[in-house]
Every structure is written in structure tokens, then in C-alpha cells.
Write a structure and sequence with these properties.
Layout: H1 2-9, E1 15-20, E2 22-35, E3 42-55, H2 56-65, E4 69-76, H3 80-91, E5 99-101, E6 109-115, E7 118-125, H4 133-146, E8 152-156, H5 167-177, E9 182-185, E10 200-201, H6 205-211, H7 223-241, E11 245-249, E12 255-259, E13 262-266, H8 279-292, H9 297-311, H10 322-331
Parallel strand pairs: 1-4, 1-8, 2-6, 4-5, 8-9, 9-10, 10-11
Antiparallel strand pairs: 2-3, 6-7, 11-12, 12-13
Helix pairs in contact: 2-8, 4-5, 6-7, 8-9, 9-10
Length: 332
């Protein structure tokens, strides 16, 4: 346990740039006791409403809760939701200085209506409007300013229009110039080649199949076939991204790491799974902090796996405070 504490202590003060789509997560929680007389739908008696940071905002708050220093670069709307987003950022020690306001796009919001731990419906407020040239220029200006100052860079792509074909290659170029490692959590809507030049590439299993052009149905074959598919996928993705490390997360199967023609697996540490929302955000945050702090890929992945185990035992997008993480590890 002492070794884990020492490794986590090394996270403190590490500066991590987080670039990608951000959003506001709204949770409307209540209890269902009857069916509506107006239509065959449940009536939710609301007892709690709260807002949390979503998408890359969740990555940034996890960096902060693990005692790193996040620099969040993204786009929000010029609306009431962006004010709420900024307030929560401030409460989570996530600076909002590098958020670009774009009046042509609303702040992304996902409203989840829940009865206890059960999701009834999710309502999304977002647009696929292309970023204006002005907004892209401002983002690039922030990125160019911050890259020389940070210890590592995370690209969190949810395909909501912030990680563009104009910005990402330039970010990769700047990071290469200043020898900064780029950790990518990709979108399945892009081609793997889009992320060429990253240091570490972290798709989940389903995303890895799509990015590598493998039929998803093959994932239903035997465990041996699954392992064979993973090897083929890894070769494809490493070749396209030119990444040094490929980490494929697989839910209850844990994660598999590929590098230099070798691989190893880390089993899951989750005891109870209430909600997997945001677990991937926690993994990329812990992985990046770990490697930026000098941990080996094995050590960083192990801590990331513990962190994911902690957050899936909570409801919704939550951060992973170091003290809570240590308590969780001790309880295993």
C-alpha cells in the first residue's frame, strides 16, 4: 500500500493539457410509483437535480482530484449552461481561462432522467455545426501557449466538433516540437490515421474494432478468437497512429496493453458496477498522470484500473479523489 501512496504522491503538481469536447451532465433523480393516466409512461417524482462536468470536463476534474493541474481547452456556447459549467469547474479546481465561447453553438448538455440507479431517458442538447474560423484560431492560440508549459497532453475526442482536421495536426506538430507526449482517447467516428503521431492511444474494445475496420460481430466468437482479433487490431492501430503504446479497455475484462510487439493484460478491479459513465475519462486521466510522473506503463495502467473500479461504483460522471482511491484499493 505504501508503494501505491508513493506513486500517487508523484501525481501532485503535474500539469496536463486537456483538449476536446466538453459538456454539462444534468441528473434528474426521482422515484416511480405510478403510470401516467395520459399515456403509458412512468411518472417520476423528482427529489434531486444536480449538474456535473461531462466529456473532457470530466477528464479535467479527474486530473484535479488526483492532484494534478488541468489546463482545459475547449468550446462552450454563450448561454446559461456555460455559466453553470464554469461554476462547477471552479468548484473542482479546473481553470476556465482557456474556454472559447462560440455563439453559434450551444453548450453541450446531456440530461439523464433516473429512477434510483435506473436510467429512464437521456435528453441531449448539442449541435454538429462546424466551428467558426475565429473559434479555431482562438483554440490554436491557447494550445500554442500552453503546450510548452505542461508535462503531457490529452486529446479527448467525443466527435462533437472541437477536435478538427485543422487543429489536431497542428497540435501534434507543436507537441512534437516541444517533445510533449500526446495521450488520445479517440472517437469511433474518426479513422485511426486521424490521430497519427500520438504517444498513447486508448480506445475501448468496440471502438478499436471500428477504428481498425473489423466487423463487430467477430467479437462474439470464442475467447481465443477474441484474443486473435485483439492482436490483429493492435497491429492495425499501432501502424496507423504510430503510437508507442496502445491500451484497449474492455470493461469487466480489464484492459490489454500493446507495445513493441508485446502485450500484457490487467484484470478489472471493480467490485460493484452501478454506472460505467465516464470510466474511460478517469482511465485516460490516471494513465496520463502516471506516465507523466515517471511510472512505467504497467504501473500507470494498474492505478488507472483501480481508479476506474472506484468510479463505476458511483452513479454518473464523478471524479476520483486520491484519498477515496486509496480507501478503495485498501478495501480490495
Amino acid at each position: 500500500m505504501k508503494q501505491i501512496e508513493e506513486k500517487l504522491a508523484a501525481f501532485e503538481g503535474k500539469k496536463i493539457l486537456v483538449f476536446g469536447d466538453v459538456g454539462l451532465d444534468e441528473y434528474i433523480q426521482g422515484e416511480v410509483k405510478r403510470i401516467s393516466p395520459e399515456a403509458p409512461v412512468p411518472i417520476l417524482e423528482v427529489f434531486q437535480e444536480d449538474f456535473r462536468l461531462g466529456l473532457a470536463g470530466n477528464v479535467a476534474q479527474n486530473i484535479s482530484s488526483l492532484k494534478g493541474i488541468p489546463y482545459l481547452v475547449s468550446v462552450v456556447g454563450r448561454d446559461r449552461d456555460q455559466q453553470t459549467f464554469r461554476k462547477i469547474c471552479e468548484s473542482k479546481n479546473v481553470a476556465t481561462d482557456y474556454l472559447v465561447e462560440d455563439s453559434d453553438r450551444p453548450t453541450i448538455k446531456k440530461s439523464r432522467v433516473m429512477a434510483q440507479h435506473h436510467h429512464l431517458v437521456r435528453i441531449d442538447y448539442e449541435t454538429q455545426v462546424t466551428l467558426s474560423e475565429s473559434s479555431q484560431k482562438k483554440l490554436l492560440g491557447h494550445l500554442a501557449t500552453l503546450v510548452p508549459q505542461v508535462d503531457a497532453v490529452i486529446v479527448e475526442d467525443y466527435a462533437k466538433g472541437v477536435v478538427t482536421e485543422q487543429i489536431l495536426p497542428e497540435l501534434m506538430r507543436i507537441c512534437s516540437q516541444y517533445k510533449k507526449s500526446v495521450f488520445v482517447d479517440p472517437s469511433r467516428k474518426q479513422k485511426a490515421l486521424f490521430y497519427k503521431g500520438c504517444f498513447l492511444f486508448k480506445p475501448n474494445f468496440d471502438e478499436s474494432l471500428v477504428l481498425a475496420g473489423v466487423l463487430a460481430g467477430q467479437a462474439n466468437h470464442s475467447e481465443k478468437s477474441r484474443e486473435q482479433i485483439l492482436r490483429e487490431v493492435s497491429e492495425n492501430l499501432i501502424q496507423q497512429t504510430e503510437s508507442q503504446f496502445l491500451v484497449i479497455t474492455q470493461g469487466k475484462e480489464g484492459m490489454t496493453v500493446f507495445s513493441g510487439g508485446k502485450s500484457f493484460k490487467i484484470p478489472t478491479s471493480a467490485r460493484e458496477v452501478y454506472d460505467v459513465t465516464g470510466a474511460g475519462d478517469t482511465v485516460i486521466a490516471a494513465l496520463t498522470l502516471g506516465m507523466a510522473s515517471g511510472l512505467t506503463i504497467q504501473e500507470a495502467c494498474q492505478i488507472a484500473n483501480y481508479a476506474a473500479g472506484y468510479v463505476v461504483g458511483q452513479v454518473g460522471c464523478v471524479d476520483c479523489p486520491q484519498d477515496k482511491l486509496l480507501q478503495y484499493i485498501e478495501s480490495l
